[in-house]
Design brief:
single chain; 2 domains; 4 helices; 5-stranded antiparallel beta sheet; 7 strands; alpha+beta; globular; Phosphorylase Kinase, domain 1
């Protein structure tokens, strides 16, 4: 699934910039993570503030309401697709633990923006472990429930905003680690 090229949130110019960038990354395999991030910042020229970057995607703040994740490596396509599919297919009672996906396009995904950090204390450490177990019992393999990848919802629930390397085998959603050469 490659996603759409239409958006209610992004402008047509934003989509054009992302498409231009995405077509370039397909032929650039030799860059380091830092080089990818710097190149993405310079070439994307989106009007949004960069609020983060991971191994495979750069994240922008869209109107202080949404997070736009744009791929910076080929692997980022897989991360975006997994987030889209897991949110779409997870049981309703688990959706509160995943930041909602609002739109999914070719090389990009838009989710709600969440900022309230999960306190690093024994109570939330236990809640984080309980969440992992709850996800496993419901057929979702959480690879990365970390402090930096989660936030607190308004109702105080731990909510994961980076679940692009989770798996949900019952739905055919499987994250495969890249083999080291």
């Amino acid at each position: 699934m490659s996603g759409s090229n239409q958006s209610y949130i992004l402008s047509n110019d934003d989509i054009k910039q992302i498409n231009s960038w995405v077509n370039k990354i397909r032929i650039m395999d030799h860059l380091s993570r830092k080089q990818w991030i710097d190149k993405a910042k310079n070439e994307l020229r989106l009007k949004y503030k960069v609020i983060g970057a991971g191994r495979n995607r750069i994240v922008f703040d869209v109107n202080n309401k949404y997070a736009l994740k744009v791929v910076i490596t080929k692997r980022g396509f897989i991360n975006n697709e997994i987030e889209f599919k897991i949110y779409k297919h997870c049981p309703d009672h688990l959706k509160k633990h995943f930041v909602p996906v609002r739109e999914f396009g070719f090389g990009w995904i838009i989710m709600d923006k969440m900022e309230k950090k999960v306190p690093r204390n024994s109570y939330y450490k236990r809640k984080k472990e309980e969440l992992k177990e709850k996800l496993r019992k419901n057929g979702i393999e959480p690879k990365d429930v970390k402090w930096v990848n989660s936030a607190l919802s308004k109702s105080g629930e731990i909510t994961v905003f980076d679940y692009g390397n989770f798996s949900m085998p019952s739905k055919g959603i499987i994250y495969k680690k890249k083999r080291k050469k």
